[in-house]
Amino acid sequence: MEDVDWQTTLDADDLRRMTPLVRVRDLKPADVILCRGTAIQSKMINLATGGRYSHAMMWWPDQENGSFAVFAESDKYGVGLTHLPFVTIQIPGVGDIEAVPFGGRYSELLVLRHKSL
To answer: Residues near 58 by Cβ (< 8 Å), separated by ≥ 6?
Structure first.
């Protein structure tokens, strides 16, 4: 198998396409993430409901492979699991930030957490 270099340098435009981003350290198991989708179906949901968000998902850490975020969300079969890879953003003078990129699918996110968590 060929070795793959997963380190890639991105410019500002590449990083913008990955937004919105959520820092991994800001997420806790069972957080609910409300999303405003970019697809036409999402816009129809917004119009029909009068709501700001068109989608919801729940997050929990992937215990077997710590480099992915796992979300339970509705799909065309009912409820399924979506695995999104973490990205590490290196910021000089700040350090590394692990984040989950939602670029392309959503234009806005809101993370909700029960007050006892």
So the answer is: 30, 31, 32, 33, 71, 72, 73
Identify any residues that bridge with 84 across adjacent strands, giving them in sequence order.
69
- Domains, the chain, ordered by start: 20-112 (2.30.30)
Gap between the Cα atoms of 38 and 54, Å rounded = 9
3-state helix, strand, coil in the chain (%, to 5): 15, 45, 40
Q: Tokens 């917004």 — which residue?
A: 46
How many CB atoms are closer than 10 A to CB 14? 11
Structure token pair of residue 43: 């816009």
pLDDT of 42-91, one tens digit each? Answer: 899 999 999 999 888 888 776 666 667 778 887 788 888 888 878 888 87
| 20: three-class secondary structure by DSSP | coil
Question: In a 10 Å sphere around its CB, with 0-12 CB exposed, 13-18 middle and 19+ buried, how is residue 21 labelled?
Answer: middle
